[in-house]
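Technical note accompanying the year-one report. For the benefit of new consortium partners, we illustrate the data format agreed upon in the data management plan: each record pairs a sequence with a structure-token string. No post-processing was applied to the example shown here.
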Amino acid sequence: MDRALPPELIARFRAALDRLGAGSARLGVAVSGGPDSLALLLLAAQARPGEVEAATVDHGLRPESADEAASVARLCEQLGVPHTTLKVTVAAGNLQQEARQARYRALADWQAARGLDALLTAHHADDQAETLLMRLNRGSGLGGLAGVRAKGRNPVSGGLVLRPLLDWRKAELEALVRDCGIEPVQDPSNRDDRFDRARIRKSLAAADWLDPPAIAQSAAWLEQAEAALVHYANAEWDALVGVSESAITYRPAPETPREIRLRVMARAIAQLGGETRLSQVAELLDALERGESGNLAGVLARATPNGWIFTPEPPRR
């Protein structure tokens, strides 16, 4: 590295870690070799010297991937940051989805093996804006529109994942890496129009009247609204749901908002082993409100005078 980072950038990054409750945590950094994750690595190494490790996931999808992982390893050696390359096999199917699953699975195993308290990823304000626009275009509910969480969980293991760069612009991160004299990896899939995110990214760049930080801030407000709904749905569950060995009974009050009912029902279905989305639960809610019965994801729901009763569907003969 040609020179140390400006103190104000390190202070800004430390403040973000403190807000996320990671002031004394041992941190793992996911580093692909692109400009965003390289910036995250540089910031973490200087903000928390001796308390950071890094990993690069080699998906094996491009001939250059092994060399790119090796270049990250060399940089980590210069920075005094322990580094591990994680080689994975990506299953057939939706390429980006399967690669993401393989990546998070490998990072979860690495995080556990190294005894790291949290995994840091390099999602930034532009990523957040892209995510919100993509999900708006898909008709996502509030949970989806809340976007990428600053403090989240590994979808495979449930391990803590922190994203301290959500209020940084991509251009800032690119400049930071460039000023340190480092040449980042450029993944061609980021410009491949076969992928929704690449098309959204191009459209967002062409629409200079859109403000990505403002869009990202809207996602943060939506995250707060989502947290409030989760809180009230949990309170509804505690007050009006009874759980026995064979059934779950929900007695919604007449004034209970529809969104809270949906979330309580989704939790009941999940607790009985069903996997579903709120949009699917909505049809079942309509049936129960009409006094009818229905089934979803292997769960039978019945409207009775004593409440809505959820039970596993009997096995088929």
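Partners are asked to follow this layout when depositing records. The chain has two domains: 7-211, 244-312.
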